[in-house]
Specification:
By secondary structure, this protein is mostly helical. The protein is built from seven helices and no strands. α1 packs across α7 and α3 crosses α5. The N and C termini lie far apart (41 Å).
Length: 155
């Protein structure tokens, strides 16, 4: 569980969100940080729809991810698109190439939800260690051991 918290805290500076009434770039209160794993749940709902309702048709995965995951995702997901997700098509290609891997990560969903209270406590501890902390969080579906998903070349 500690490794999961460490990975999530490492992402804390990278991307995320706070409640709408505060500027996320100036949030120094860990109690006001919006810590959620809703995007993980959203991803699996889109995946399940594709797998069961659309009979896992590879031609329909990108559209499903776009409409049900990327368009509906939090600002954290949208911030993750340019450098990691790239596009619904790119994500669909990665999933289709490593489908067993993605499905093996599903069990982490509940672990992430269970870790949220500990993450909030760690944010509070972190505040006491940093002069001007900024609490922003993004929880990614992939771990460091995930298959490489390089962005397509633009030139």
């Amino acid at each position: 569980m500690r490794w999961l918290c460490f990975v999530i805290l490492a992402c804390a500076v990278a991307c995320a969100q706070t409640p709408a009434d505060t500027n996320p770039l100036h949030n120094t209160d860990p109690e006001k940080a919006l810590i959620t794993a809703d995007d993980v749940t959203l991803f699996w709902k889109a995946y399940d729809y594709w797998q069961y309702d659309l009979k896992a048709d590879p031609a329909k995965l990108a559209e499903t991810l776009q409409k049900q995951y990327l368009d509906s995702g939090s600002q954290g997901v949208k911030d993750f698109i340019p450098r990691r997700i790239v596009s619904a098509q790119h994500l669909a290609e990665q999933i289709l190439q490593a489908r067993a891997y993605y499905e093996s990560t599903r069990s982490n969903d509940q672990r992430i939800h269970n870790a949220l209270p500990e993450i909030r406590r760690d944010f509070a501890k972190l505040k006491s260690c940093i002069l001007t902390p900024c609490f922003r969080l993004c929880i990614s579906l992939s771990e460091r051991s995930a298959p490489a998903a390089p962005a397509p070349s633009t030139g």
